[in-house]
Design goal:
Elements lengths: L2 H29 L4 H32 L2
Amino acid sequence: MNSRLKTAGVNFTIAGTLLLASRMARILPILYNWHPEDIVTAAEVSLVFCILGFIILITAGSNLIKASK
């Protein structure tokens, strides 16, 4: 198996997990009626997870492009 394909698969799994965590960090405080300050903190954490997830998605796409050559 091509090592770049394996790396891309792992990156897709990590990125998917981070993006799911981002959505959960944004939704759960609203569902459980947290204090407004805590909701803002959760939104900041959600943004960090989202940015990391997209960076890893770009890396995975780059690995797939390199593996197809």
